[in-house]
Fold this sequence. Notes:
85 residues, mainly beta, four-stranded mixed sheet, 14% helix, 35% strand
Amino acid sequence: MNCINKVDLIEVNKNNEVAGFILFNTGKYAGGQANFSVHELFVAKSFRSRGIATRAVNKLLEMYKGTYRVEQLEKNKLATKGLFC
């Protein structure tokens, strides 16, 4: 895969309102062997717990094929709520 080196932003919309965003890096900014690195994933409080983040990540994975590097702060427990058994 031929990736350019940049940081990109995808707006997450619900009913024509900005509900959040995904900030991701490509190329050398992704780090290691990854093609992409998710740097930030944010959903506004008023839009949370509706599956918006899940749908946004699935759309990102559809649009940008390759390997991803995703990290989270250990203290950010909400970020992994419901993701792991």
